[in-house]
Amino acid sequence: MNVGEKIKFLRKKHHMTQADLAKLLNVATTSVSAWEGNKNRPLMDKLTAIAEIFDVPIGVFFTPDLPSLQNYRTDIENINEESLVKIPVIQAPSHVYPMHIEERFTDYEYECKEKIPNGNLFYLYVSDDCMEPRIPKGSRVLILQQNDLEDHTIVAVRMVENGRITLKRVRVQPEYTILAADNLQYAPMLYKEGCDLEVIGKVIRIVIDL
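The structure assignment produced for this chain is given below.
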Protein backbone atom coordinates (compact mmCIF):
# COMPACT_ATOMS: atom_id res chain seq x y z
CA MET A 1 0.00 0.00 0.00
CA ASN A 2 1.26 3.47 -0.81
CA VAL A 3 0.75 6.54 1.40
CA GLY A 4 -2.50 7.58 -0.28
CA GLU A 5 -4.01 4.11 0.02
CA LYS A 6 -3.09 3.96 3.70
CA ILE A 7 -4.75 7.32 4.40
CA LYS A 8 -7.88 6.21 2.56
CA PHE A 9 -7.94 2.86 4.35
CA LEU A 10 -7.54 4.42 7.82
CA ARG A 11 -10.14 7.11 7.04
CA LYS A 12 -12.73 4.56 5.96
CA LYS A 13 -11.90 2.30 8.89
CA HIS A 14 -12.83 5.21 11.18
CA HIS A 15 -16.00 5.94 9.17
CA MET A 16 -14.86 9.40 8.08
CA THR A 17 -15.54 11.18 4.82
CA GLN A 18 -12.84 13.11 3.01
CA ALA A 19 -14.58 16.28 4.17
CA ASP A 20 -14.44 15.09 7.81
CA LEU A 21 -10.71 14.49 7.64
CA ALA A 22 -10.09 17.72 5.76
CA LYS A 23 -11.88 19.69 8.49
CA LEU A 24 -9.75 18.11 11.22
CA LEU A 25 -6.59 18.93 9.28
CA ASN A 26 -7.72 22.43 8.28
CA VAL A 27 -7.19 21.72 4.58
CA ALA A 28 -9.45 21.62 1.53
CA THR A 29 -11.33 18.41 0.75
CA THR A 30 -9.58 18.41 -2.61
CA SER A 31 -6.24 18.09 -0.78
CA VAL A 32 -7.36 14.88 0.92
CA SER A 33 -8.68 13.60 -2.40
CA ALA A 34 -5.33 14.36 -4.08
CA TRP A 35 -3.42 12.54 -1.29
CA GLU A 36 -5.59 9.45 -1.52
CA GLY A 37 -5.32 9.43 -5.30
CA ASN A 38 -1.52 9.79 -5.03
CA LYS A 39 -1.60 12.96 -7.10
CA ASN A 40 0.15 14.74 -4.25
CA ARG A 41 1.74 13.80 -0.94
CA PRO A 42 0.97 15.45 2.42
CA LEU A 43 3.80 17.30 4.11
CA MET A 44 5.32 15.86 7.26
CA ASP A 45 3.24 18.02 9.63
CA LYS A 46 0.01 16.75 8.02
CA LEU A 47 1.17 13.12 8.11
CA THR A 48 1.96 13.56 11.80
CA ALA A 49 -1.51 15.01 12.38
CA ILE A 50 -3.14 12.15 10.44
CA ALA A 51 -1.24 9.60 12.55
CA GLU A 52 -2.48 11.33 15.71
CA ILE A 53 -6.09 11.45 14.47
CA PHE A 54 -6.12 7.71 13.72
CA ASP A 55 -3.96 6.81 16.73
CA VAL A 56 -1.27 5.01 14.73
CA PRO A 57 2.53 5.39 14.74
CA ILE A 58 3.95 7.69 12.07
CA GLY A 59 5.91 4.68 10.80
CA VAL A 60 2.73 3.33 9.20
CA PHE A 61 3.25 5.73 6.28
CA PHE A 62 6.91 4.79 5.75
CA THR A 63 6.60 1.01 5.93
CA PRO A 64 6.37 -0.51 2.41
CA ASP A 65 3.28 -2.65 3.06
CA LEU A 66 0.76 -3.57 5.70
CA PRO A 67 0.64 -7.38 5.38
CA SER A 68 -3.10 -7.73 5.97
CA LEU A 69 -5.92 -5.23 5.75
CA GLN A 70 -8.16 -7.50 7.78
CA ASN A 71 -5.65 -7.54 10.66
CA TYR A 72 -4.64 -3.90 10.26
CA ARG A 73 -4.52 -3.13 14.00
CA THR A 74 -2.09 -5.99 14.63
CA ASP A 75 -0.02 -5.04 11.60
CA ILE A 76 0.21 -1.41 12.71
CA GLU A 77 1.11 -2.27 16.28
CA ASN A 78 3.86 -4.58 15.04
CA ILE A 79 5.66 -1.63 13.42
CA ASN A 80 8.63 -0.87 15.65
CA GLU A 81 9.40 2.84 15.88
CA GLU A 82 13.01 1.92 16.68
CA SER A 83 13.32 0.48 13.16
CA LEU A 84 12.81 3.96 11.68
CA VAL A 85 15.48 6.56 10.96
CA LYS A 86 14.70 10.28 11.22
CA ILE A 87 16.33 12.03 8.25
CA PRO A 88 16.59 15.84 8.02
CA VAL A 89 15.31 17.63 4.91
CA ILE A 90 17.17 20.64 3.51
CA GLN A 91 15.08 23.19 1.58
CA ALA A 92 16.76 25.60 -0.85
CA PRO A 93 20.14 25.29 0.91
CA SER A 94 22.85 27.92 1.03
CA HIS A 95 26.24 27.77 2.74
CA VAL A 96 25.54 24.28 4.08
CA TYR A 97 28.50 22.36 5.46
CA PRO A 98 28.29 18.58 5.93
CA MET A 99 29.09 18.63 9.63
CA HIS A 100 26.20 21.04 10.29
CA ILE A 101 23.48 19.50 8.11
CA GLU A 102 21.33 18.51 11.10
CA GLU A 103 21.30 22.10 12.33
CA ARG A 104 19.88 23.49 9.09
CA PHE A 105 16.89 21.25 8.38
CA THR A 106 13.41 22.47 7.46
CA ASP A 107 11.60 19.17 8.03
CA TYR A 108 12.11 15.44 8.67
CA GLU A 109 11.36 12.28 6.73
CA TYR A 110 11.31 8.77 8.19
CA GLU A 111 12.87 5.73 6.53
CA CYS A 112 13.11 2.05 7.50
CA LYS A 113 16.64 1.21 8.61
CA GLU A 114 16.88 -1.85 6.38
CA LYS A 115 16.10 0.23 3.28
CA ILE A 116 18.96 2.74 3.63
CA PRO A 117 22.77 2.51 3.95
CA ASN A 118 24.70 3.29 7.10
CA GLY A 119 26.10 6.79 7.42
CA ASN A 120 24.94 10.40 7.71
CA LEU A 121 21.94 11.02 5.45
CA PHE A 122 19.80 13.98 4.51
CA TYR A 123 17.17 14.83 1.90
CA LEU A 124 17.87 17.75 -0.42
CA TYR A 125 15.31 19.63 -2.50
CA VAL A 126 16.75 20.16 -5.99
CA SER A 127 16.77 23.88 -6.74
CA ASP A 128 18.01 23.87 -10.36
CA ASP A 129 17.56 21.96 -13.62
CA CYS A 130 21.16 20.75 -14.01
CA MET A 131 20.20 17.07 -13.94
CA GLU A 132 16.96 17.22 -15.92
CA PRO A 133 15.24 15.19 -17.23
CA ARG A 134 16.44 12.41 -14.88
CA ILE A 135 16.22 14.55 -11.74
CA PRO A 136 13.66 17.36 -12.19
CA LYS A 137 13.86 20.69 -10.41
CA GLY A 138 11.75 20.53 -7.24
CA SER A 139 12.28 16.82 -6.65
CA ARG A 140 14.05 15.44 -3.59
CA VAL A 141 17.23 13.41 -3.47
CA LEU A 142 18.55 11.34 -0.58
CA ILE A 143 22.21 12.16 0.02
CA LEU A 144 24.79 9.99 1.77
CA GLN A 145 27.43 12.36 3.12
CA GLN A 146 30.91 11.56 1.82
CA ASN A 147 33.87 13.31 0.22
CA ASP A 148 34.92 10.53 -2.14
CA LEU A 149 34.07 10.68 -5.83
CA GLU A 150 32.97 7.40 -7.41
CA ASP A 151 32.82 7.06 -11.17
CA HIS A 152 29.33 7.17 -12.74
CA THR A 153 27.63 8.33 -9.54
CA ILE A 154 25.70 11.57 -9.00
CA VAL A 155 26.99 13.84 -6.24
CA ALA A 156 25.94 17.03 -4.46
CA VAL A 157 28.63 19.70 -4.57
CA ARG A 158 28.81 23.11 -2.92
CA MET A 159 30.19 26.10 -4.80
CA VAL A 160 32.60 27.68 -2.30
CA GLU A 161 32.26 31.16 -3.84
CA ASN A 162 28.49 31.54 -3.36
CA GLY A 163 27.44 28.55 -1.24
CA ARG A 164 25.07 27.21 -3.92
CA ILE A 165 24.54 23.44 -3.93
CA THR A 166 24.02 21.60 -7.18
CA LEU A 167 24.09 18.02 -8.50
CA LYS A 168 26.66 16.66 -10.94
CA ARG A 169 27.49 13.32 -12.55
CA VAL A 170 31.02 12.00 -11.84
CA ARG A 171 33.32 10.93 -14.67
CA VAL A 172 36.73 9.91 -13.37
CA GLN A 173 39.64 10.36 -15.83
CA PRO A 174 43.30 9.34 -15.33
CA GLU A 175 44.52 12.86 -14.47
CA TYR A 176 41.35 14.68 -13.40
CA THR A 177 37.66 14.23 -12.66
CA ILE A 178 34.81 15.75 -14.66
CA LEU A 179 31.61 16.84 -12.92
CA ALA A 180 28.97 17.05 -15.64
CA ALA A 181 25.32 18.05 -15.79
CA ASP A 182 22.81 15.87 -17.65
CA ASN A 183 21.30 19.11 -18.95
CA LEU A 184 23.65 20.04 -21.79
CA GLN A 185 22.96 23.75 -21.28
CA TYR A 186 25.45 23.59 -18.39
CA ALA A 187 29.17 23.25 -19.10
CA PRO A 188 31.08 20.45 -17.31
CA MET A 189 33.43 21.30 -14.43
CA LEU A 190 36.89 19.95 -13.66
CA TYR A 191 37.40 18.76 -10.11
CA LYS A 192 40.94 18.70 -8.76
CA GLU A 193 42.75 19.55 -5.55
CA GLY A 194 42.41 23.21 -4.63
CA CYS A 195 39.34 23.91 -6.80
CA ASP A 196 36.41 25.97 -5.50
CA LEU A 197 34.08 22.99 -5.12
CA GLU A 198 33.27 20.99 -2.01
CA VAL A 199 31.85 17.48 -2.38
CA ILE A 200 29.01 16.99 0.11
CA GLY A 201 27.76 13.52 -0.69
CA LYS A 202 26.43 10.92 -3.11
CA VAL A 203 22.84 10.70 -4.36
CA ILE A 204 21.36 7.32 -3.51
CA ARG A 205 17.64 7.92 -4.14
CA ILE A 206 15.39 10.24 -6.14
CA VAL A 207 11.87 11.13 -4.92
CA ILE A 208 9.52 12.83 -7.38
CA ASP A 209 6.13 14.08 -6.17
CA LEU A 210 3.50 14.16 -8.93
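Interim note for the steering committee: Residues 3-13 form the longest helix (11 residues). Helices lie at 3-13, 18-25, 29-36, 44-53, 72-77.
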